[in-house]
Amino acid sequence: MTADDEARWLIRGVTIAGGGQQQPGVTDILLGGGSVVAVESGLNHSGVRVLDAEGLVALPGLVDLHTHLREPGREDAETVETGTAAAALGGYTAVHAMANTEPVADTAGVVEQVWRLGRAAGHCDVQPVGAVTVGLGGTRLAELGTMADSVARVRLFSDDGRCVADPLLMRRALEYVKAFDGVIAQHAQDPRLTEGAQLNEGEMSARLGLVGWPAVAEEAIIARDCLLAAHVGSALHICHVSTAGSVEIIRWAKSKGWPVTAEVTPHHLLLTDELAAGYDPVFKVNPPLRTAADVAELRRALGDGTIDCVATDHAPHPVEAKETEWPEAAFGMTGLETALRVVQQAMVDTGLLDWAGVADRMSARPARIGRLTGHGVPLAAGAPANLTLYDPAAPAEAVLAAGASKSRNTPFAGLELPGRVVATFLRGKPTVLDGKLC
Amino acid sequence: MKRHLISAADLTRADAVLILDTAEELAALADRPIKKLPTLRGRTVVNLFYEDSTRTRISFEAAAKRLSADVINFSAKGSSVAKGESLKDTALTLEAMGADAVVIRHPASGAAHRLAEWVQGSVLNAGDGTHEHPTQALLDAFTIRRRLKGDGGGAAGRAGTRGAGLDGIRVTIVGDVLHSRVARSNVLLLSTLGAEVTLAAPPTLLPLAVGTWPCAVSYDLDTELPKSDVVMMLRVQQERMTAAYFPSVREYSRRYGLDTARMGRLPEHAIVMHPGPMNRGVEIAAEVADSARSTIVEQVANGVTTRMAVLYLLLSGTEFPEVAQ
Amino acid sequence: MCAASSPVAGRDGLAVLDAEEIRRALTRIAHEILERTHGGDEVILLGIPTRGVPLAHRLAALIGEFEGLEVPCGSLDITMHRDDLRLHPARALGRTDLPADGVDGKTVVLVDDVLYSGRTVRAALDALNDLGRPRAVQLAVLVDRGHRELPIRADYVGKNLPTSQREVVRVLLTEVDAQDAVMIGDSGGQS
């Protein structure tokens, strides 16, 4: 521990989003001992480090419900160290690491390993996600209870990458996790309807001669699982919702009061399948990019809360997995470092969400869904000192392919996005200052 | 500036007519004692074939050699990543060998697009997955134009086709459109040339978005036959049956196969085409394939001529000519 | 004159031959051909597109008029044999139409409108070489404007026209341009 860890920080002249105070506006925040000590204008304490935050927005530290850190097994694409560094640069103080590693995170042993790696790296908190089925095979339940009891305290379970297609198994999983307030996160993709699928089934796929991934393959599973969750009274979370039809089903389920939550990725808020025209596999992702009508509906839904949160589905891949023919290329896009900027472009600058809304969708709700304590707490005296300082007025800059992530497969390379993450604090200690890793 | 021929959509009507007219002039070469022109001397054309296709490869090879180009054949089976060198590495090797043009046939849709990012020369798409096969469409258009727009009909009809498109000609394409790169290229090119295209197939073998294509759609072959000047049969693969695209080969053949009875319902002048290879007895009856209406044999010769025209226009000068519309 | 011609930039130029003079020149050439080929024995006329073709047809008609002899007439496109293809975008091909009996053993008279560098004729000789083996090849041109770059000469010349390389010579023929004239104008930069 260095002197920095003990240091108190005074963040001066910032606007708090999603705060608990009665008078929103420009104020100062004092951090000390891992907590928010005070939120008040004109604070002036000696012996503190000062961060001039004029023009910046302070958000509770962002929480990602859906990240692929690739370790163990695919360290050529990313490690916990590099992935969490990328997360911190994106303003995240906690990420949920998906279970499709090698070996799969279906035992206490693997989830505890990932948890420890996260603590050692120290850039942000890593909450491991446990697999629903052994080896993601979809036939046998993994030891969900043991993972829940482990030091990693797993509450979110997902076979993401694969769908839990067997309805009976999905039912059992939903029922089983009630014992420890767990939640099953479904990657909704009917395998039979999407064999060999490459791109959203539509005009583009017909023109390009690529096997289509029909929207109904996602919607049918979501509908089924919402009904199952209601039937057994257990929490269901839908990963990376990508179609307008899915939104409609989720809206209907929520109107019935059913325990369903949903997430959307930044890329599904901004990009469409037309980008596949040049066959560049950087745009190949699962679920695929859809149409402009889908993008519009997803934005509306995130705006009105039908979709609860933004989750990056950060999926790093080595160069050779993407620099090849489309059908051979891997599915997935990176997203941790650009998420907040994309959300500003797609949601805030279009008037669909204000900064308080961003705090809710990118911090409060994901923390709640993930049953994560210490994160997503509104910034007020006594709250944990997990926060993100963001400059929405930073001049728009083209996204670089190279960043902290080991991988370069960002679909936003060359695209001008607004905003800049200036600083990230994890329990009072800065992980990012002036846009650079500490 | 056109450096490549990757999709039939790359060609305007004027471009397509120029290619057909050029092919018309080059066709006479086949009757000459010296079947060679010096035009592409010193140019290197590489045939990069990742799929077994002797027929198409030989066609491109003959076309290049008749123009005195040097030809290098590079055969690889299966996908690049699974079986060895990546497509990108192969492309860089070809660059180092100084290929002026690469003719690529590959099982992945979009392979020609990717290749074009990595080579300096021209890329000719000889069939990429289920995406496109533009030179097939060109030779089909050339065949149709000669047969139906030339005076005196027959295989030698030639005079009077210069500058002509395919206006008013009704073409029915029959079969597995969903998986057919020949169908995609033909729908684009034939409609660009002014033909009226109809696709006839069971609904399972048509892409869902086919309504946005410049053609009509029918599930009933028999209603289309009497109104067709050209019937183009596509090959149907037996494997499609196991994936539940149709219940049995027998039922497919009964509903969509071109047998002699159906051939009899065609207008007198109508022609029957097939890109080959054929499944005799499935999509086309043997007697139909061998009849006088069938252009299957001349399509092969026309393939060499059309490919010569494309190679000439892409490689002889600094670029494909800008054609006034 | 090159096959891909475009309008002369600037003024049309000066007419150095009018329709009547062109007619007289062609008449003379027709007679000369008959003289030097023993009355047109085994002669075929091949015009080089574009304007060499109507000229060849006119000569054939004149010969037919004078001798009652039908001289086979056709066209020989030389585009594929040009030596300057790589310097410009690909060129559209002209028609090659050979008489039914071919060229073997014949006296081929190539017909073109303007003889300048001689490269077109060189290409024509190469093209002809791939078609067969003529007994002899002769060249008839309406205008010889000098400035040869190869050892090529015409057997029959309508008019010798000394020019500077800055000038452009254009032959206009009714079949193509709705009038008959030979024009000289200032350069548009073409050779």
Straight-line distance between termini of chain C: 8 Å
Q: What is the residue-averaged pLDDT of chain C?
A: 90
CATH architecture type of the largest domain in chain B: 3-Layer(aba) Sandwich
- Name given to the CATH homologous superfamily of the largest domain in chain B: Aspartate/ornithine carbamoyltransferase
Largest sheet of chain B: 5 strands, parallel
Low-confidence stretches of chain B: 152-157
Rg of Cα set of chain B: 19 Å
Q: Based on the coordinates given, report the CATH architecture of chain C.
A: 3-Layer(aba) Sandwich
Strand content of chain C: 15-25%
Record the strand order, biggest sheet of chain B. Answer: 7-6-5-8-9
The CATH topology of chain C is given as Rossmann fold
Question: What's the overall geometry of chain C?
Answer: globular
Shape of chain B: globular
CATH topology of the largest domain in chain B: Rossmann fold
Helix percentage of chain B: 25-40%
Number of strands of chain B: 9
Q: Structural class of chain B, please?
A: alpha/beta
What percentage of the residues of chain B does DSSP assign to strands (E)?
5-15%
Number of extended strands of chain C = 8
* SSE order of chain C, one letter for each helix or strand: EHEHEEHEEEHE
- Give the chain pair forming the largest contact, with residue counts: A-B, 20 and 27 residues
